[in-house]
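Bench notes, afternoon.
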Amino acid sequence: MTLIKSISGIRGTIGGRPSENLTPIDAVKFAAAYGSWLKNNHTGEATKVVVGRDARISGSMIQQLVMNTLIGLGIDVIDLDLSTTPTVEVAVPMEKAQGGIILTASHNPKQWNALKLLNEKGEFLSGAEGAEILEMAEKADFDFAEVDSLGTIKPAIHYIDTHIEEVVMLPLVDVEKVAAANFTVAVDGVNSTGGIAIPKLLKRMGVNVIELYCEPTGHFPHNPEPLKEHLTEISNLVMEKKADLGVVVDPDVDRLAFISEDGEMFGEEYTLVACADYVLGKTPGNTVSNLSSSRALRDITQKHGGTYQASAVGEVNVVQLMKDTNAIIGGEGNGGIIYPELHYGRDSLVGVALFLTFLAEKKMKVSELRKSYPAYFMSKNKIELTPELDVDKILQEVEQKYSGEEVSTIDGVKIDFPNHWVHLRKSNTEPIIRIYTEARSQQEADDVAKKMIGEIKEIANL
């Protein structure tokens, strides 16, 4: 069992012992640290926090602990209850709140939960802010409110509907065009809140919906990470029902994958590519994804006359570079769409609406759209090292060896070759190097990875 404290929040498995797992004591301590940090940074004004959760089994328990801790600090809580990560992000500025907490462990299995923290813009905290909160949690130096100054809880369960209306009002979302296309779409909501939000959005856009695992029980029927090997049922359902498309989200609805009408994966990496192709075709501009995302986004961006840039891995890094470069769309290759026209956060609802509008406009099958994009293939591997090895030194030697190529060191070492790339990142929690490669064929991507693993072993004398 595990408790992971990082600058982006606290994540762990339910049960066990305090400080070793995500127990009620840890949830209270971390919520108190965040609430205290907010009050310190918003002195002289009433503090308000939006709280929402995915449907995992421990969600209600953790939510009650978190909300009542905030009340004890004199903070007012806007309770979204069952919600999605992007919905909470949208709600924070709408409520003029000072922050937000999302209770979700994203794509992790049901025994996990987490507290993810937002600022007053509904965006994830910076690394420095997260570090401050971790330090406050360790010191446990909290000043709780007296009885006449306790906070309140205000239910606000309408926000998924509000979020949907904000999405369909976007200028590049055409509800009438989508409705006229008479699409049939199968949805796998993995028995979490995507099973509420995605069917509602689709019906609002005039789409015929086939639901699979859309009851928000928190009992995930398969591994909740939306990868091909976990999605055989939705793939079969799309073909059986002759659906135009399959839509798959993770438990908190910030990762989006599509299934083509032939039951094949559209490819998580290509979710962002397709949405960017549509947006750039209407509103030319720049794009951003992280260093481990497909080169296909760069190709599409350049086709539309824009500039592509890559950030360090992590949503907060993608968002910052998007702001710095005035990017009009960006995200992560894991199916995360960030469209600033609505908000700076990965949002599957926005992704679905943009994709369907694009599909209706193109009047082509999903498989045909996929074939229209550059074909890239990824290989994701890792090499385990002994704890005494200096991982940073190994990465420096790789960097020096390939100094004649295009090399980025903003997040590990990424080497861009003319026809492929390699990205090496060290783990912060264990002695391993993650090795991501992309090439024009799966065989080439795998071969490049094997070659790099051999070179690392040679450098490390393994």
